[in-house]
TrEMBL record:
Single GO MF annotation: lyase activity
Keywords: Lyase
InterPro entries: ICL/PEPM, Pyrv/PenolPyrv_kinase-like_dom, Pyrv_kinase-like_dom_sf
Originating organism: Rhizobium changzhiense
Protein's recorded name: Isocitrate lyase/phosphoenolpyruvate mutase family protein
Length: 256
């Protein structure tokens, strides 16, 4: 498949009630392993890619390294790739679009694009984030790629008190609608794990909803019944792999 065909195929995988499952990767090697395991598409996790290169999350990883990582993955594996691009390394719409263009040129067919002010605290007003999405969409259309913009809201991830999540749902729904109108393709709500709230957002969202697996989250089959269109694993795979590596190394060194 060429890039346009991959982008169309990736978008078609997002079906409400039959979600695409993305077990997040961080380099070409993990991409090949997950592809061999039966994945239909691939997605990086920003935390994982940064950690694999010795950086903290939050756009501390040089953008050039992230773009080169994307290139190495698309060169190694012939599956659609979505890149977790955080805040696109720019607060301004034009800057964000120019940076995402580099991801498109690397062969990716989608991004995660979050509404938190990276390094600054808080979230962008919905109108400001929508303007950034519009700029990215216009850039992608200019390149002729039906690029998948997974518009992420950090409302729930930023609120550690789960009892307050119900009070954030209405704002999340409004943000989702604004992001859809601006050209978003999916709506990502990491941090949300309450089944009733997930179902409410899925019912109201004009875009397929993405849930991130974490402790306490429903399993994939339950999420499908709630209407979710995409399930991802975030930094979980990286943390699991690093823990296994440490355990195996410790077992060896304990014998010396």
């Amino acid at each position: 498949m060429n890039q346009t065909e991959k982008a169309k195929a990736f978008g078609a995988l997002h079906r409400q009630g039959d979600p695409v499952v993305l077990y997040n990767i961080w380099d070409a090697g993990t991409a090949k392993a997950v592809a061999d395991a039966g994945a239909k598409a691939l997605a990086t996790g920003s935390w994982s890619v940064a950690a694999a290169h010795g950086y903290a999350d939050g756009e501390k990883l040089p953008m050039s390294v992230l773009v080169e990582t994307a290139k190495s993955i698309t060169a190694a594996v012939d599956l659609p790739l979505s890149v977790d691009f955080e805040g696109a390394y720019s607060a301004e719409p034009d800057g964000a679009a120019a940076n995402v263009a580099k991801v498109v040129e690397a062969g990716a067919v989608g991004i995660n694009f979050e509404d938190q002010v990276v390094g600054g605290g808080g979230l962008y007003p919905a109108e400001r984030q929508a303007a950034r999405i519009r700029a990215i969409r216009a850039m992608a259309e200019g390149k002729g790629v039906p690029f998948f913009i997974n518009a992420r809201t950090d409302l729930f991830l930023a609120e550690s008190d789960l009892s307050r999540h119900a009070g954030l749902v209405d704002e999340a729904i409004e943000r989702g609608k604004a992001y859809a109108a601006a050209g978003g393709s999916g709506f990502f709500v990491p941090g949300l794990i309450d089944p009733a709230l997930i179902e409410k957002i899925c019912a109201a969202s004009p875009l397929p909803v993405n849930i991130m697996m974490r402790t306490g989250a429903p399993d994939v089959k339950t999420l499908a019944k709630l209407g979710v269109g995409r399930v991802s694993y975030g930094p979980g795979p990286y943390r699991s792999m690093m823990e296994k590596l440490k355990q195996e190394a410790a077992a060896i060194y304990s014998l010396l």
